[in-house]
Amino acid sequence: MSIEDRHDIAERTFLMRDERSFRDRARADRQVGLWAATHLGLVEEAAEAYATAVMNAGVVASDGRGGFDKVAADLAGTSFHIEMIRTQYAIAMASLADHLFEGAPPRFAGLTAH
């Protein structure tokens, strides 16, 4: 294997990880958006629309924190502390990581994401 082949493999691996990270953040934004919607009194279509708005806020933010910032701003007038929002994001990201190990080959079957 040549150095160019190794470079190409490393570059593709980086791009795949970056894309997966982007998708995971978008999924976490949506999941937390649905959680926040219930605490804002939104149901059904309004809750879905809010979750989509949170996800879109995360997508357009260059630092990836747009979804978090939107939820934090929207819940600022409630009794929810910012740490509760961070906890919801941690739960969302952990649940996404757990799905990576479902159906994994036997060498990964006993692993869990923490």
Structure notes:
The protein has 114 residues and is mostly helical. The chain has one domain. Helix content is 73%, strand content 0%. It has four helices and no strands. It has helices at residues 3-39, 44-60, 66-74, 82-101. Helix 1 packs antiparallel against helix 2 (44-60). It is elongated.
SSE-based structural type: mainly alpha
Major sheet attributes? none
- How far from one another are the termini? 35 Å
Overall geometric form: elongated
Question: How would you spell out the order of helices and strands?
Answer: HHHH
Unreliable runs: 105-109
Beta-strand percent range: under 5%
Number of domains: 1
Radius of gyration: 17 Å
- Mean pLDDT, as a whole number? 80
Number of strands: 0
Tell me the helix content. over 70%
How many distinct helices? Answer: 4
Feature tags:
4 helices, single chain, 114 residues, mainly alpha
How is this fold's topology laid out?
Layout: H1 3-39, H2 44-60, H3 66-74, H4 82-101
Helix pairs in contact: 1-2, 1-4, 2-3
Please summarize what this structure is.
The chain is mainly α and 114 residues long. It has helices at residues 3-39, 44-60, 66-74, 82-101.
